[in-house]
């Protein structure tokens, strides 16, 4: 199971963290932007050239520190077709560096359409008998709002192509509670109901690591809920956003881990990408600063495990 | 408000329906596929060439019958970068024919990321002061699972750039109830809670038509729930999937409309796209068959309004 590969990479690097690649243009050092604009103007192409150099520098500096990267699709889609090409190029480069790829897309739809999304990222696209891989990454995030028949096509591809998914259970943002924290007539919160579905979906996908292909997204900003969710989904890996910039620290993410020190991978995007903007770094040292922050985060996480 | 434009187009064509463009390769007539494969092979490029000719034929046959088209992003994403280019080309062509474009993407994320998604489709991407339109369509579908701060960036762009959105309230698929039908401690279903949010979000976006920029997705397959939702969101347009192939008929979608005969736009994808597969049509008549089915559907809907 693909999650075993993730666990193996986490163990090899003694690092349960993932570097988010959410490249807002304002994150990119000025000198890189200016070089790209000089050649391509302030265009979608120019922005993507600048972000490509930035992403490449970050991946080069991080690939032996972190086990995984998590590109956020929105920050590529916003540059149109140029952005899509940049996303593919970034993923290809990170793959070559041996990184586990979690693409944050939060896709969701009814059965047949969910199957198309799954083929786009995890599975293969059938072209009259020819099976073609459109992108072929390790893992995507999935929104469970449509229920089982919207999630199942992704799970089928996890089994067929050895992939994994993280399903949204409790998000990190302030208003996540509006739907996710609603209390149902059984006395359980919506996020608990979802957790039970995830645990069921996960049950026949357990790999050698003891974890299954169906993980959960659980925000670092809600440690109390994380504690409850950890118990409800003992064999699901957690993808944990909200560390650092969103406010959650290492103590906050601790409840997302199992007692074996496994079971969670903590994301940091801005904290790592923009590390050069804090302290005495020069712009040209953006990659070095990112590496130092990734190492600091690794040590911070390991200090509570 | 962009929704006024939709209402105007619906009135002009006396047709409250939208043609879904969900082009599975098996929908495309054999002779079109063979021609494309001969030139490009059974590749992503070959598939997209075939689908392009199919989409173009459909748009040519439908643009004076239907007010809007709804491409489903999944069926383009599954062809990778070629599919993204096909989606852009299809949208551009439909725009030139005067059609209102509803892109079914069901995007969702926390605030800053939701803003990036909104820029990708509705708003403009800021490149150091240059505002560039990455795609620039009329309307997208949005998943409300992250709550208000995940939806607000889309609404901000609706106001700024005169666009509209449809937020998932009650989906058409069999398992949609697993989360959406949960009963909360106030006695209301989750879909009712969402409806109240949508009504609130919509309240300061009301246009001349009496409808606002924040509509709702309400499945044709659940007419009882639709009746409740119609009352909770009187000023929201409904995007109604599930007519025809998914089982809902004209009587089933009636509760989605207001007493003025407005308030809903009903989607048909496979029913229109694959009309040539029913009856005595030749493959070469796929566009004519689609047009005939679109006209039949229009008359069917008007018969109950």
What does the model show?
2 copies of one chain form a homodimer. Chain A is α/β, with parallel strands linked by helices and 305 residues long. Chain A has one domain (2-22, 65-304): Aldolase class I (TIM Barrel, Alpha-Beta Barrel). Chain A is built from 13 helices and 10 strands. Chain A has helices at 2-12, 30-40, 44-62, 74-77, 80-96, 111-121, 148-161, 177-180, 190-202, 223-232, 250-253, 270-273, 286-304, and strands at 17-21, 68-71, 100-107, 125-127, 130-132, 139-142, 164-170, 214-218, 238-240, 264-268. In chain A, the strands form 2 sheets. An 8-stranded parallel beta barrel of chain A has the order 1-2-3-6-7-8-9-10, surrounded by 8 helices. In chain A, strands 4-5 form a two-stranded antiparallel ribbon. In chain A, α7 (148-161) links the parallel β6 and β7. Chain A is globular and about 60 Å long. The model of chain A has no long low-confidence stretch (mean pLDDT 96).
Q: Which quaternary structure do these chains form?
A: homodimer
Largest interface: A-B, 74 and 74 residues
Named at the architecture level, the CATH assignment of chain A is: Alpha-Beta Barrel
Range of strand content of chain A: 15-25%
Low-confidence stretches of chain A: none
Number of helical elements of chain A: 13
Spatial ordering of strands, largest sheet of chain A: 1-2-3-6-7-8-9-10
Total tally of structural domains of chain A: 1
Question: Distance between termini of chain A?
Answer: 25 Å
What composes the largest sheet of chain A? 8 strands, parallel, barrel
Shape of chain A: globular
- Level of helix content of chain A? 40-55%
Secondary structure: number of strands of chain A: 10
CATH fold naming of chain A: TIM Barrel
* Structural class computed from helices and strand pairing of chain A: alpha/beta
Order of helices and strands of chain A: HEHHEHHEHEEEHEHHEHEHEHH
What's the overall average pLDDT of chain A, rounded?
Answer: 96
